[in-house]
Amino acid sequence: MTGDAMRLGPQPGEVIDRAARLRFTWNGKPYSGYAGDTIISALAAAGERVFSRSMKYHRPRGLLTAGFHDPGCMVQVGDEPNVRGAHRLVTDAMVVSSQNTWPSLRFDVKGANRLAGRFLGAGFYYKTFMRPQVLWPAYESVLRRFVNGGSVSADTPHILPEKRHAHPDVLVAGGGPAGMAAAIAAARAGASVLLVEEEHQLGGHLRWGGEADLATLADLAGQVAGEPGIEVLTDSVVLGRYDGNWIAVLERSPAGPMPGAAAERLIKARAKSLVVAPGLIERPYVIEGNDLPGVMLSTAVRRLINLYAVRPGERAVVLTANAEGDAAVADLKRAGVEVARVEDARLGGDVTAVKGRSGVRAVTVADGTTIGCDLLVTAVGWTAPTSLLNMSGNRPVYNPRAARFFPDVAGLPADVLVTGGIAGDGRLEELAGHAAATGAEAARRAAGVARARARAVPTREAGDPPPARDAAAGAVPVPDLPVDPHPELFIGKTHGMVDFSEDVSSKDLEGAVAEGFDSAELAKRFTTATMGPVQGKLETVNTVAVVARATGRSIADTGTTTWRPPYVPVTLGALAGQAHEPVRYSPMQPWHEAHDATPLIAGAWIRPDRYGDAAAEARNVREHVGIIDVTPIGKLDLRGPDVPKLLNLLYVNKWSKLEIGRVRYGVMCADDGVVLDDGVTGRLGEQHYLMSTTSSGAATVWEWVENWLQTEHPDWQVHVTPVTTAYASINVAGPRSRELLERITGGVDLANEAFPYMHVRTGTIAGVADSVLWRIGFTGELSYELHVPASYGLHVWETLLDRGADLGIAAFGVEAQRILRLEKGHFIVGQDTDGLTRAFSAGLDWAIKLDKDDFAGRPELAWQLEAGVAQKLVGLQPVDGTVVPEEASLIMDGSEIAGRITSSRMSPTLGRSICLAQVDAHLAEPGTVVMVRLPGGREIEARVMPQHAHVDPDGGRMRV
Amino acid sequence: MMILLPCAWCGPRDAAEFQHLGEVVPRPDPRTTTALQWRSYLYLRANPCGWTTETWYHRMGCRRFIKVERHTETNEIRAVFPAGAAG
């Protein structure tokens, strides 16, 4: 099959490259087109007229607007559904098919819906499929097959779209003559400009105009190209305008390498001023049969003929109310289309109905004559696409004289300006003059914004010059544009389609009003008019006009529905972009990997969970010596005379008398008394402390500390430096740990008397100076926590392993540490406590010092002590020590839930199962036997222990 | 929210750089507070449609806490100062 049945000879403004033939398939059959053709223009050139079936009635649909918003031209391209066929360019070997037309586009069985049309009125789905609700899944599965949504494959390759940030002085939305003129003027006034055009070329309607228009376009394009300050984005669209002119721009075919095909790129632009110049969108006419293939807008036929050199039909009737319709008549004649009748609405002409089944066969005109034809062209008026103005808080005003909405210019924010057809009419020179003045004024205002922002930076020197722009000049005078009269033509003498995407007719809308949905917003939601893929671009004003007529109100009183972002659909991939989630490894990671560590994801960190058998690793710590990489432990370096005040405020216990060389365990609560974090803090010098936090709480505690210092106590002299990753941290634990460290430590007397439990020293480890040693015992063994400068972490780690070989040293992972700490009864914040656990419930009675005047959470803890605790954290052992109740198993008091297991493990040291549990206070007495309900439902007995620790409750092992 | 927030240290920056910590609520004196006062401080917010003073944290920037007087309906900002400043 050739692609040329309806192709015309070369046209002066054509955008196709006749030297570049492209071959593609449509529903499996071969077609051809030229580079520059859209899918639909190539198919139309081959004589195709039906491109899809409508959503509800499966009516055949053809070409209506020949642009992005053409509702009948959504197609499937390869794996990609819902492609705008009248916008997407044909590429070689493209595989295109119609969507959800079964068994074929031509014989669609679901077209039978059309015959039952009177049963499928507005609200049909709501009313019919509401009851019984249990049947909804069945309804849904059938209804889904009737929806025109294309299909996606599970094998679609994963794409990672990029995002870009832009900071233009002026962003111009719309690259027609007005947008181009505004951009040129803004650039000449010194502004950087981002000029965004939805179509594939700049120029707007000039592209399908006559010789004079094309000459103007060439001139403007030359000027745009000559301004280095203008960045042009074609095939790109402004999705939305948000606070402070934060503008989302979607690039549909971004240049440069992108991972994956068909990726869109989101540009987050912070523009100093925005010029809205989208032009006007032509509106369909509502009459019987207005959705038949062969009914086209005047701009559609002009685009087909002039841009793509395609003859839109053989015999046409034209309904015109404006110059665009008149120009279409001339274009049609020039293209060899027989113009059977021109109905001029300005002189009382009208078309009352369109007849045909799979396409236009005849139309009835004002005088009752029925004229045979295959093409009806309408030019009945315009819709102002005011989306970006709505998003700027503007309420467009209806002007009945011009039969369209206009922006409320006086009500626009200072950083949003409008120009072009949306602002008024007039000759091209008048519009260009308005646009140039608007562009220059936009640049002036942008310069003002830039100066204000520069001045708002407190660190800027007073004498810093403002941006070198025309700072002193006053506002650029923007001339008024004339408003041309236009007949109000929305609905004809018969009922027809209002929303082509959703199959909503004027009759449906009248029915909605009759049922009481008598505001435009209500009728919209009830009928779904304006809610389809076209999102109101074609149908909003007609919807408003039908509602206005049915309610007897004026269009101005009825008002429009609200346009919200995004202006056009955007792929979720473009919005999501790429994940930028950092992953943290300790300096010892190469060793962990070389020794087959099982990775554990702990927040941002990847940690070794175990190297082999975690129980064996734990036993080795109890019997010999082990080392664990604890680098993720949060570390804050605190300096200044007021550190003790800070510690007293943030921890529940007392810190005033911590001597140099001592370490203390502390618990932090929030002001609601709930346990926030815990850790040890050591005093390294007169005004120098090192605080540790839980690994997961490192960032939170840092911000918590800063918040208190900056907000409540800005007068306190404390300087906080996060040093979590500045140090590599290693815990050396086990009875042989001192012996091991004595071999590699310099400058520290490790003897028990010289360096006792809960003390801190600084010295040299494995030759590394400025290392910190804490003698603490999370595992319950004699142990030292080493903090060495991060770059020496691996060296120290390997030295420990090397020098400890004869002592039975082995590395242990997080799992072994969890076993050991549970044996010792040390709780983990966030595991054994939760978002409701106040400090007394966590069994911290010994630490809480209510005789301090103030600390975070103090009043709540005082009241908790007064009222008594509702739950308590206790050590718990199943009577049958072979059973390890899963964590979160329930503790039952009869049929009532009375707590839960928070931690449980098999203890390698005791050879029995051990737990920590939160239980209701009346069950917390030592010796109480409680029932634990396992996940399977079986209940077992467990005994409450006198303390949290299951191994060495007196702590003798840590103090040797 | 896409506003520009004038950090007291860095000047106008994208709101996405900040963490919004909500209305400024004075902390009652913990020695004399009643449960009602304390829990109002913990849990109750005025959430006005109009001017409010709130704390923002320039998390992706200078890491300073700032107090911002913002109009919740228009997003207009009339004053910004360090969180520890009186006012």
Task: Explain how this protein is built.
The complex is a heterodimer of chains A (960) and B (87). In chain A, 23% of the residues lie in helices and 26% in strands. Chain A has 22 helices and 49 strands. Chain A has a 7-stranded mixed beta sheet, sandwiched between helices. In chain A, helix 6 (298-308) packs across helix 7 (323-334) and helix 10 (506-514) crosses helix 11. The longest helix of chain A is centred in the middle third of the chain and has 28 residues, at 428-455. The N and C termini of chain A lie far apart (93 Å). With 87 residues, chain B is mainly β. Chain B has one helix spanning 35-43; strands spanning 4-7, 11-14, 19-23, 51-57, 65-71, 77-82. In chain B, strands 3-4-5-6 form a 4-stranded antiparallel beta sheet, with no helix packed on it. The longest helix of chain B is centred in the middle third of the chain and has 9 residues, at 35-43. The model of chain B has no long low-confidence stretch (mean pLDDT 94). The chains are: A alpha+beta (960), B mainly beta (87). The interface between A and B is medium-sized, with 29 and 31 residues.
Tell me the strand percentage band of chain A.
Answer: 25-35%
Shape of chain B: globular
Number of helices of chain A: 22
Give the strand order of the largest sheet of chain B, numbering strands 1, 2, ... along the chain. 3-4-5-6
Rg of chain B, nearest Å: 14 Å
The mean pLDDT of chain A is: 92
Helix and strand content put the structural class of chain A at: alpha+beta
Strand order of the largest sheet of chain A: 39-40-41-42-38-32-43
Gap from first CA to last CA of chain A: 93 Å
Q: So what's the overall shape of chain A? A: elongated
Task: Summarize the SSE layout with pairings.
The complex is a heterodimer of chains A (960) and B (87).
Chain A: E1 17-26, E2 29-35, H1 39-45, E3 52-53, E4 60-61, E5 74-77, E6 80-84, E7 94-98, H2 124-128, H3 136-144, E8 163-166, E9 170-173, H4 177-188, E10 193-196, H5 211-225, E11 230-233, E12 236-242, E13 246-251, E14 265-270, E15 273-276, E16 281-282, E17 295-297, H6 298-308, E18 315-320, H7 323-334, E19 338-344, E20 351-355, E21 362-365, E22 370-372, E23 375-379, E24 382-383, H8 387-390, E25 397-399, E26 404-406, E27 416-418, H9 428-455, E28 497-499, E29 504-505, H10 506-514, H11 520-527, H12 540-551, H13 555-558, H14 572-576, H15 589-594, E30 598-602, E31 605-610, H16 614-623, E32 625-629, E33 634-639, H17 643-650, E34 663-669, E35 675-685, E36 688-693, H18 698-712, E37 719-722, E38 727-733, H19 737-744, E39 745-746, E40 760-765, E41 768-775, E42 783-789, H20 793-803, E43 809-811, H21 814-824, H22 858-867, E44 871-878, E45 890-893, E46 896-907, E47 912-920, E48 929-933, E49 939-944
Parallel strand pairs in A: 1-7, 8-14, 9-10, 9-15, 10-11, 15-27, 17-23, 18-19, 18-23, 32-43
Antiparallel strand pairs in A: 1-2, 3-4, 5-6, 5-7, 12-13, 13-14, 16-24, 20-21, 21-22, 25-26, 28-29, 30-31, 32-38, 33-36, 33-37, 34-35, 35-36, 38-42, 39-40, 40-41, 41-42, 44-47, 44-49, 45-46, 45-48, 46-47, 48-49
Helix pairs in contact in A: 4-5, 4-9, 6-7, 10-11, 10-12, 16-21
Chain B: E1 4-7, E2 11-14, E3 19-23, H1 35-43, E4 51-57, E5 65-71, E6 77-82
Antiparallel strand pairs in B: 1-2, 3-4, 4-5, 5-6
